[in-house]
Amino acid sequence: MKNRHRLATAGRSLCLAFTVLVVAAAASGCSERSEVVEDDGYVELGDLPALHARGAVRVLSPRVSEATGLPRQGHLARLEREFAEAFVQSQGLEPVWVWVEEWEDLIPALLEGRGDIVAALVTATPSREKLVAFSAPLTFVRERVVSRDEPPYIDSIADLVGRDVIVRRSSSYWETLESLKAEVPGVRMLAAPESLDTEEILYRVSAGEYDVTIADDILIKDVLAYMPNLRLGLALTDDRRIAWALRPDSPLLRAAADSFIHEFNPASDRADRYVGDLPAIKDRKVLRVLTRNNSSTYFVLHGQVMGFEYDLAREFAKQHGVHAEFIVVPTRGGLLAWLRQGRGDVVAAGLTPTEERSRRGQSFSRPYDYVSEVLVSRMDDSTLHAPADLAGRTIVVRRSSSYWGTVEGLRSQGIDVALVAAPEELETEEIIDAVARGEYDLTISDSNLLNIEMTWRDDVRGAFFVRDSVAHAWAVREGDVELKAAIDSFFNDIYRGLFYNVTRRKYFSGPKRVRSHATARAATSGTLSPYDDLFRRYAIQYDFDWRLVTAQSYQESRFDPSVISFAGAVGLMQVLPRTGRQFGFDNLQDPDEGVHAGVNYLRHLYDRLEDVPNSEDRLRFALAAYNAGYGHLSDARRLTAELGKDPDIWFGGVADVMPLLSKRDYFSRTRYGYCRCLEPVHYVRRIGDQYGAYAVAVQGGSR
User: Fold this and answer.
1) Annotated active-site residue in 80, 85, 175, 556
2) Which of 118, 203, 245, 482 is the most buried (most CB within 10 A)?
3) Among 693, 701, 700, which residue's Cα sits nearest to residue 521?
4) Any alpha helices (H) in 138-250, and if so which ranges?
């Protein structure tokens, strides 16, 4: 979205205010979902009694259709919104979200009475304090100079003389820069386009397009995880509070907010490394979960953080009244080391308990899942049926994986198979991809991971099972006996129950997409679908060819409005309920509303891509963003430019590069992380093919 202000995408230094919302929500008896609406024009300037009379508090926030990136170091900026919901519900009121397109319009909307609280990670600057009242602090930040990690370095104010410092005028950084320029006239102030968020400005500094910028330290710490060539420089401010903004004439609402924040924000920043059993975790109200960014454990899809381990860990944390904070460890081999070092409390990453791992100062929970280990070969390799067929072949797996011991077991049985160590930073999915490309001969995969891969690729196969009934478990430090007992009890309670079965099926049992064309209907009846009238109506309203919209709906749902995807997308156009609500659509399984929501969202993505000069490429980009998420498309365009290709064209440009986002060498330095991004390339192609068939079958579809 344009002009979105993201002061703190994530950060290990966020206060515990954001981590206790589970406790607050439980205390207030709130539901997980709150009402979200457009700005309906209602004006209210009253204090808390007036809000009680209406029964709701309107919370102003920038409209978001994407997550703010993959949180690698813990907290998400979105947690402020959840904390605001918990506060409103603690008052016995309904949180009503009012989405504002432009960040700089948030405070004017508050003062005009179109909302009651601004929850947008607002920095309390002197100029803003003249306009609005601020709550007690949620956290504190310092604004720092950021440049590329190369000389000349900026270690003092004097080093800024002659440098170009670029920030948005609407940001708090501009105010800081104005004060700095009064002190050091030689600093050159440049206004960044308001369409750029802080992360994008940091990226342009990283790429050498911009010279210097200013950003909050908690945002920078997360960005450094994938832009290591940035340098965090001197602090330009003392601690500044991040707080909710309220109207100055609402002292009762402010007092209630302050009381809530003080009650549920008992601690300040935490050191990166510390240990403690379950009582200490409950005291801190944070469970640090060490994991990996891959297709089954922890990833972003359509701007939504997902994963089998992610869902399980959040449910466990919820039951114990703490917040699950996810920390991505750079290598699989480092998971247990980080645990022993006190950089996390539990490892949830699909680990198999082994004797060697159990000797290293950690213990494993009872198993929560069982899989088989499968030999993986290229699809055209039909020579492998049993272990004896492995003679003379080479299997490539990580030395730290349980697969290494499995192959050693085969070799001890006299099977002449070579064993080669894969780089520790590679996920199993990446090794499978290397087998498909012919770089590796064979590998071994857990059956559930191979099932995920086989939902979108047809160039590898599972040859035969090499080991059955392999357990997966979480790991904790050896002395954390209460935490282990709680995890064991949790898995005893949920294993093979409704929550567990639904969650496991969601990630590992999705059917492979059918890829055939369905043009017979058009050929025999002159219609494309039972919903042609809806596709025509909304395509005209949003200036698209209705046959293209129909082709997209076919790919999404096969014209079945009752379909719900594993990610929770609903209806004919497979729109996420969260996205639908932000655009004012609540009943996505209704064909009319579902089609309207989908075409509206496609238009929104198309409009965001205004920098793409060619309208056909722009539409292809919009479709790719619809399928994979705008964030992954943005990552692909950045990577395309870095590789010397044109980021503004699809064929020969982004379509060639986007599949690289499944490879660690590339996705580890992106904002949104791992993506099975060959799928959106196929998605765009299939819609194009389907549209071509529809255009021939039914005339009269141009815009």
Assistant:
1) 556
2) 118
3) 693
4) 172-183, 198-206, 217-223
